[in-house]
């Protein structure tokens, strides 16, 4: 397996930047989705670094595949962010309205915070192992 963990980390950082930009613009549902993407790609970076591969978008299951002890806060963030993967994007998740009608500044803030924690933890794990 070719090691491309740096590419995954770079894109995770760009997704986190996008989450922050969307937050500033009041696009809270997009901010939550981009936060999910940042954490997903961070875990895919870590898996790639460990020469493991797992497909899918569930951060919870990506994290489990890593096989390392991780802080409960990181596990909690994985679960929290997974809850925003679909509802932040699709209007038919709701009886009426679009995701923009349901997402708040508090939602976006908590998602960004989780994405930051996940990315920071992944980077620390890789740096310690290098």
How would you briefly describe this protein structure?
The chain has 130 residues and is mainly alpha-helical.
Description:
With 130 residues, this protein is mostly helical. The protein has one domain: Four Helix Bundle (Hemerythrin (Met), subunit A) (Up-down Bundle), CATH 1.20.120.330. 66% of the residues lie in helices and 0% in strands. It has 5 helices and no strands. It has helices at 5-24, 28-49, 59-66, 72-82, 105-129. Helix 2 (28-49) runs parallel beside helix 5 (105-129) and helix 4 crosses helix 5 (105-129). The chain starts with a helix and ends with a helix. The model has no long low-confidence stretch (mean pLDDT 97).
Give a quick set of tags describing it.
mainly alpha, 66% helix, 130 residues, elongated, Four Helix Bundle (Hemerythrin (Met), subunit A)
Chain-wise SSE layout:
Layout: H1 5-24, H2 28-49, H3 59-66, H4 72-82, H5 105-129
Helix content, binned percent: 55-70%
Task: Report the strand count.
Answer: 0
Most strands sheet? none
Computed CA radius of gyration, to the nearest angstrom: 15 Å
Portion in beta strands: under 5%
Question: What is the fold-level CATH name, i.e. the topology?
Answer: Four Helix Bundle (Hemerythrin (Met), subunit A)
Gross morphology is elongated
Low-confidence stretches: none
Cα distance, first to last residue?
18 Å
Helix/strand order, N-terminal first: HHHHH
Structural class: mainly alpha
CATH superfamily heading: Nucleotidyltransferases  domain 2
- What is the annotated CATH architecture? Up-down Bundle
Mean pLDDT: 97
How many H/I helices?
Answer: 5
CATH class: Mainly Alpha
């Amino acid at each position: 397996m070719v090691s491309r963990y740096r590419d995954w980390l770079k894109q995770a950082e760009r997704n986190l930047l996008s989450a922050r930009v969307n937050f500033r613009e009041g696009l809270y549902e997009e901010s939550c989705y981009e936060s999910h993407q940042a954490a997903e790609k961070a875990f895919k970076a870590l898996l790639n670094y460990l020469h493991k591969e797992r497909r899918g978008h569930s951060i919870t299951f990506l994290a489990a595949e890593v096989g390392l002890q991780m802080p409960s806060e990181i596990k909690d963030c994985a679960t929290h962010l997974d809850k925003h993967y679909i509802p932040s994007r699709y209007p038919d998740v709701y009886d009426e309205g679009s995701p923009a009608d349901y997402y708040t500044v508090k939602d976006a803030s908590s998602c960004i915070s989780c994405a930051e924690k996940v990315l920071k933890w992944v980077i620390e794990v890789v740096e310690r192992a290098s």
